[in-house]
Specification:
Radius of gyration: 22 Å
CATH superfamily of the largest domain: Ribosome hibernation promotion factor-like
Shape: extended
Largest sheet: 4 strands, mixed
Order of helices and strands: EHHEEEHHEHEEE
Strand content: 25-35%
CATH architecture of the largest domain: 2-Layer Sandwich
Helix content: 25-40%
Oligomer: single chain
C-alpha cells in the first residue's frame, strides 16, 4: 500500500535538512510493516516544559487498516527526540506484528497459557498474580480538596479519592505540563 507521510511543525521553523532527515527515516517504516496507510509526524517546540531537556517533542502516528500506533518522545535536540520516537515506533510495530500474526497456526494448550500468566519465584513456587493489596479510608471531598490533599501528601503522579459532588471514586493525576487531569470511571 502507498504510505502517505505527513510532517507538521508546531511552534518552530523546520529546516530543509530536518525535513529530509525525517522523510528519509519515515519512508523506512514501510519495510517493517507493509499495511501502513498513513504516517503522521508532528515536531514541536514546547516552551512550557518543566525541564529544558524536554522542550523538543516528536510524535509519530501510524494508521492502517485495523490499527493505530502512536508514540511521543521528548529531548533537548529535535533529531534526538525524533530518533527516540522512531526507535519506539519500530518496537511497537514488532510487538503489533507479533500479536497480529501469533494467532495464525500458533496452537498452545491451556496448561502452557496458564503457566505463562503466573509469575514463579526462585523456588519454583507460583506467586499470586496480585502481589499486594492495600486498603485505605476515603474521606468524601471535592476536586479542589483532592488537589490540596495530593500536594500535601506528596503524591506526584496520582491520587484516588471519593468525589462527594459526583458520588463516585475518581483518580486525579498530574499531567506533563503541570496541570491536573481527572479520570471519572463509568460502568459500561
Amino acid at each position: 500500500m502507498a504510505n502517505n507521510i505527513e510532517i507538521q511543525a508546531r511552534n518552530m521553523r523546520m529546516t530543509d535538512n530536518t525535513r529530509e532527515y525525517v522523510e528519509k527515516k519515515a519512508a523506512k517504516l514501510e519495510r517493517y510493516l507493509q499495511e501502513i496507510d498513513e504516517t503522521r509526524i508532528e515536531l514541536s517546540h514546547s516552551k512550557a516544559a518543566r525541564n529544558a531537556n524536554d522542550r523538543q517533542v516528536a510524535q509519530i502516528t501510524i494508521r492502517g487498516k485495523g490499527f493505530i500506533l502512536r508514540t511521543e518522545e521528548r529531548a533537548d535536540d529535535l533529531h534526538a527526540a525524533f530518533d527516540s520516537a522512531f526507535d519506539k515506533i519500530q518496537r511497537q510495530i514488532e510487538r503489533y506484528k507479533g500479536k497480529h500474526y501469533r494467532g495464525r497456526g500458533d496452537v498452545r494448550s491451556a496448561a502452557e497459557v496458564f503457566e505463562e500468566e503466573w509469575p514463579v519465584d526462585e523456588t519454583g513456587e507460583l506467586l499470586p498474580l496480585i502481589a499486594k493489596r492495600k486498603k485505605f479510608i476515603m474521606m468524601p471531598m471535592n476536586e479542589e480538596e483532592a488537589v490540596e490533599q495530593m500536594r500535601l501528601l506528596g503524591h506526584n503522579n496520582f491520587f484516588v479519592f471519593f468525589n462527594a459532588e459526583k458520588n463516585s471514586v475518581q483518580v486525579l493525576y498530574r499531567r506533563r505540563n503541570g496541570s491536573y487531569g481527572l479520570i471519572e470511571p463509568v460502568v459500561g
